[in-house]
Amino acid sequence: MAETSTIRSSKPSSALLSAETMAKLERMELVSRKIFRGRMKGERRSKRKGQSVEFADFKNYVSGDDLRFIDWNLFARMDRLYLKIFLEEEDLHFYTIIDDSMSMDFGDPSKFFVAKQIAASLAYIGLCRGDRVSVSSFETSASPVVIRGKSSAHRLIGHLESLSCVASACTMSESIKRFCVKNTGKGIVVLVTDLMNKSGYEAALRMLVAREMDIFLIHLLSPEELNPAAQGDLKLVDCEDGDQREVSISAGLLNRYQQTLAAFIEQAKSFCNKRSITYVPARSDQAADVLVNEYLRSKGLVR
Amino acid sequence: MNWISALGPLQWLMILAVPPAVLSLYFLKLKRKELAVPSTLLWRKTLEDVHVNSIWQRLRKNLLLYLQLLFLALLIFACLRPGWSGQSRVGERRIYIIDNSASMQATDVSPNRLDLAKKKVRELLSDTSADDVGMVIAFSDRADVRQGFTKDRNRLFNAVESIPTTSRGTDVSEALRAAAGLANPGRSSFDNLSDIMVADAVPATVYLLSDGAFGDLGDFEMGKLKIEYIPIGETKTNNLGILSFAVQRNEDKANKLEAFARITNRGDQKVDFTASLEFDGKLLDASAGSVEAGEEAGLLFELTDTDEGQLKLTLDYEDALAVDNVAYAAIRPLKQISVLLVTPGNNALETALQTPRVQQIASVQVESPTFLTDPKYIDATLNATYDLVIFDQCSPMQMPSSNTLFIGSVPPQVATPKPAEESKEDAKNVGWKFGEPKGPIFILDVNRSNSITQFLEMGAVEIVEARTVEPGESGTVLMTSSDGPVFGIAPRGPFQDAVLGFSIVQKTNEGSARNTNWWARRSFPVFVYSAVEYLGGGVTESSSPSVQPGWPIGLMLSSRFQDYRVVAPDGQTTDLVRGDESRYTFTKTDEMGIYQVFAKGVEKPVESFCVNLFSNRESDLTVADSVKMGYEKVAATSSVVQARQETWRWILLAGLLLLVIEWVVFNRRVFI
Question: Which domains are assigned to chain B?
Answer without folding.
Answer: 9-84+653-669 (no CATH), 93-236+621-641 (3.40.50.410), 337-535 (3.40.50.880), 546-611 (2.60.40)
